[in-house]
Amino acid sequence: MQRIFLHNLFILIILFVSSCNVASAQSVPKHTISGYIKDTTDGESLIAATVGVVELSKGTNTNNYGFFSLDLPSGKYTLKVSYVGYKTQMISVNLKADMKLNVELSSSSITTQEVTVTAERKDANVTSTNVGRQELTIETVKALPAFMGEVDVLKTLQLLPGVMAAGEGNTGFYVRGGGPDQNLVLLDDAVVYNTGHLFGFFSVFNSDAVKSLSIEKGPIPAQYGGRLSSVVDVKMKEGNMKEWEVEGGIGLIASRLTIQGPIIKNKCSLILAGRRTYIDLLSKPFTDTYHNGQYKGDGYYFYDINAKLNYILSDKDRFYASGYFGRDVFNFKAPNGDFKINFPWGNNTVTARWNHIFGDKLFMNAMFIYNEYKFDIGADYQSVLFNVSSNTRDIGAKVAFDYSPAIGHMMKFGVDYTNHMLTPYQTSASVDTVNLQSTNTAAKHAHELAAYIADDFDITKWLKVNIGLRASIFTLAGPYFKNNFDTAGHKTDSVDYAVGQPVKTYWGLEPRVSLRFKVAKATSIKAGFSLTKQYIHLVSNSTTTLPFDLWVPSTQAVKPQIALLYTVGAFQNFKDNMFEASIEVYYKQLFNQIEYGDNKVVTSTQDIEDFFVYGKGRSYGSEFFFKKARGKLQGWVGYTLAWTQRQFSSINNDQWFYAKYDRRHDLNVVLMYEINDRWNVAATFVYASGNRTTLPVQLYYLNGGVNYIYGPRNFYQLPSYHRLDLSATFKLKHKHFKKLHSDINFAIYNVYNRMNPFFVYVDAQGNPTTGSVNVSLKQVSLFPILPSITWNFKF
Amino acid sequence: MLTKNKNIFILFILALAGLVASSCTKDLTGSLPNFGTSVVVDGSIETNHPPIIILTRSTLVFGDLNINDYAAFLLHGAVITMSIDSSPVQVPLQEICLQSLSIPDSQKIQLLQSLGIAVYDSSKVPDVCAYTLPYAELLTYANTGTCPDCGVEGHQYNLKIKVNNQTITAYTTIPHAVPIQGLSIRDVPNVDSLVNVMITLTVPSSTGNFIRYWTKRNQEPYYT
């Protein structure tokens, strides 16, 4: 691996040198046009809008804050400003000096739910160096059938090739053979450690508060780090700068309400979005009276709140403050009072950002980020009190710069710092005056620092390159205490570090390269490579993220995970971008992968890392994507053929085995059709090879009981998964309240009531007293056909 | 008309509830790969007791089983030796079958139960065979309650088994017993006669935090 790395580093250095030469060759005197592209109705900045120079057949895209910068020689130009779902504007400019140009685009129609995509960014998928990047508009997300009426951005991402759903109705996902912890999920640049409500059946993202989302399946751009497999970047809306508006929906299990508007018109806006389930409230009258109120207070609910303040300080300065607060709460008490449990868990994130433009070309985004995930289980069983809690907290700062020295040339560079505090399971139990406390419960502290530079530029008319280098350093620091144990589990000695004292430091260079060869006007071939490192890890026996998940840092024993990704793709658009097609092939190598060892029993006396085993992985496959982007009928077909394997010492006799993330076939068909100006319908069909699991293959008697011997790791493949969902949206007319736009969405999940496997288990049935027992394999299915209805409104 | 609509509504609700309730469990059929069978060693040695080794084979996991067929899974003719600590002396263990003992079935059932083998059909007492110390030592054990090769605290016992053309080795150490320092009871709220028995003991720091204990009620056998 070291040899591969040095070889790629050498190529990277050559490319950087080339980049400087190209930049200097193009450095003739020019003027700069810069500004923001916004939505005319609410002033929201438009991310990745295209600003093209017609005369040069070149252009640029706005960054994550709607800012663009173009460097052009003096002269007359026609700028073509376009964005998905908006009317394109042609603007003539006579460029004699640097100029500011803020453009407001108007949506092609005012809608609440239906798809309004009228234009794709012209050849963007073909001309850019992005490999493995997919963007979804929130309108598309909202147009698709929703599970129990809850629109879900993460479940929509699962409909893209290379992104596999973790399980039935679940928001967890795997990207190109990586585990769920290898996905970096960002909400306004804050890491979201646990992306699911209700054990992952609903995502933590309220679609009404989401402005845009994208996924990078790799090579991951240099500005992102800390995860191996993908980056999901979710941006919250900034708030309407023009007028106050209310948006919401009432569904079967939850309702949403969003209020946004200007505090100072065109200068300062605020958005507040909330969502809550209400099964507990609906059932309250019954639980209060049922069995003399013995079940009173029981129930489950989740809620989340998004808030964002956006303040334009000047032409060159903007300030944003955004936050997310979400909780799941489960309460239960047994009727006789013997057992009570209270179980809250959830994420908090806060992001404060300051945008500043130096000159006309250098865009700075300085951020302070706080995020936290915690869970806390408190139980009382016959006056014996139990408590288990865990916490993952980051405090960080980032400074990121975007710089465009010439048209078609974009540089990004910056520095990230994060302070991690990872508190392992704190378990305690008490009976009367006796208290039991687990040992090794102290939080682990770590510092993660990274600097990066990425350069995207044309080498020739047909060859464009994006090279990036990220240098990262990670230090586990005191206070740190750990007991050491021998192989028999006996304590041998311990290590103790003072506050701030370095325990272990890792560092590394993470190069990323993407090349685009433009074969024809609408045809290109792309290739990419990346080396990524991950310093904090999730080790889980489950297939997705769960409330009990525990993140652990790299330590002396736990080394950083490393991934090498190689990918090649062919991209072709047809009929003036009405159709897009692509084929991507990838090969990914994973090192320092972590699993629980076989037959390991986690005890409170040992550190959880004492139970890990380490290994490697590989994943390879191909992804096919065909999309119709315009017209009354829109949608896409995505198909993935992939293999994913792992190898660990002491697991499966050191032999390679198929990972639980292995999914041979994965097919997604998405269709959206606009029948008329009041009716829209949509359908999604998914097919996936069955999940892999480990089953017993032999049994034996011991001590009067039946015991199992398990087969090779993940040797058994569950039946395949397939499902059809349908939805129809009807736009209502309101004669007396013309500002009100509303619709009713009818959706059916699992239309043909397929009993898809959720999990399987071994069931022993029979009467031991007669000596006869039948052992069989049972499949549990979760969701049958589920209709739902939701009323959405906006005024 | 109103009644008809009401009936349709109730039918709709019932149908919906039926569908939701139909999220279900079903049998999965289809053959699994045949991974063969394994030798299962159930061996134990306790303080002042002779070693008991029962050798069985595993069987395929899915299908019908009869616990009274236990004897069919036993492996016979194994060569088993035991050594103590680093001593080169190998103590041969011999196979003794239940049917060779001249004792009533009721005692055989009790003996099997003490080995953890339940007998549900008293008319078919399985002919269970176990490997243990030679008769001479067993006789000493029966007369004195202990024997030269019976288990002693603090010693390591090494086992070597040759069966079905394979050799299996294992070892175990009998830990020193931990004395109980105190015993108390605590009432369980809302349950009339139920109490929790609280035991106080000091856990040795050198041997981990696992404590095995036996309990018994009145004249019943000890349970672990």
How would you briefly describe this protein structure?
The complex is a heterodimer of chains A (795) and B (224). With 795 residues, chain A is mostly beta strands.
Q: Gap between N and C termini of chain A, in Å?
A: 58 Å
Strand segment count of chain B: 12
Number of domains of chain A: 2
Cα gyration radius of chain B (Å) = 27 Å
Task: Report mean pLDDT of chain B, rounded to a whole number.
Answer: 79
CATH architecture of the largest domain in chain A: Beta Barrel
Task: Describe the protein.
The complex is a heterodimer of chains A (795) and B (224). Chain A contains five helices and 51 strands. Chain A has 795 residues and is mostly beta strands. In chain A, the strands form eleven sheets. Chain A has a 22-stranded antiparallel β-barrel. Chain B has 224 residues and is an alpha+beta fold. Chain B has a domain at 39-173. Helix content of chain B is 18%, strand content 29%. Chain B is built from three helices and twelve strands. In chain B, a hairpin with a 7-residue loop joins strand 11 (182-187) and strand 12 (195-200). The interface between A and B is large, with 58 and 51 residues. Strand 50 (772-780) of chain A pairs antiparallel with strand 1 of chain B.
